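Example 4.3 (complexes with small molecules)
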Amino acid sequence: MYNSKITGLGKYVPENVVTNHDLSKLMDTNDAWIQERTGIEERRWIKEGSEDTSAVMGAKAARIAIERSGLTKDDIDFIVFATLSPDYYFPGCGVQIQDMLDMPTIGALDVRNQCSGFVYALSVADQFIKTGMYKNVLVIGAEYHSNGLDKTTRGRSVSVIFGDGAGACVLSREEDNTKGILSTHLHSQGKYADKLIVESPSIGHWVPEILNAKDQDISYFPYMDGQFVFKNAVVRFSEVIMEGLAKNNMQKEDIDMFIPHQANLRISQFIQRKFGLTDDQVFNNIQKYGNTTAASIIIALTEAWEEGKIKAGDNVVLAAFGSGFTWGSVIIKW
Ligand code: UT7
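Answer. The structure with oxa(dethia)-CoA bound is encoded below.
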């Protein structure tokens, strides 16, 4: 069995900055409420007329990650793409990457696991490398939320949170099994699927029905029972981090860098306090980007690395929780 390690990181966010003040012109909200409840100051939303989509942003991040890994697109053996906002209902974004990057006809897989999508995607890629099937896997998380949000007062509790963006990494074979991804831990609880959901379009609620229902039908906007999701998030985050530490005989004191899914700054701060971590041991950027769902961990990891906050030998912990419910963690020896 091999280990896998991250050999290249990249990110891309749209240029268009949308501040809380900008949102207050669209709906009944204000900067104080958004900052106090979520920590978000601004987010990036793709501008109308831009070429950007989840796949296009993913391709931009992927090119940077591949270049930084010192490899070329022809060295990549497989693509895993995590998103809840694919360009098409089908096919998935993975195959678009294969085309956009002009890659050989390698396999491409889409992962549909929302906020924990990147953790799941990394785990899938890790298994392919561990077994020796592939040497280099491109893993992408990207979201184009802004076009699917209810930007009226009706949708304010959800739409102020989400931002657009993409991140990518190259995961490569590592012969030394004390380095790289040490373990991954994945969970789900479908009982709570309806607590954070986009119901339509779905096979049960298809286009003619949606067109007939017109404005009365809000099933095509994200719905979230915010407080219920929050309470479950803090419990599951803690559990799945503890599970990862225990598996590797580590204590919370062994964590050098914690990169949480950027759902809400209050959730990250709660976990930080619970695990006794200093501000330097937790990386947050939700203030600038909002919640970019499957892209959030990989954008944050890329930025933390770019800012020199992760050194060789560090124990890096990634953890996410979200719609499904699904949650997971990854323990990495950098
Ligand atoms: O990423 C996937 C996982 N997601 C999460 O983990 C998110 C978890 N949940 C949360 O982060 C929080 O629950 C939210 C940020 C979504 C909401 O914060 P909250 O503190 O739970 O607020 P609330 O929904 O209980 O709303 C409080 C009040 C309500 O007014 P009343 O009923 O008290 O009069 C809302 O109508 O705030 C009102 N409100 C707003 N006011 C101004 C809701 N949204 C807004 C808004 N601006 N955007």
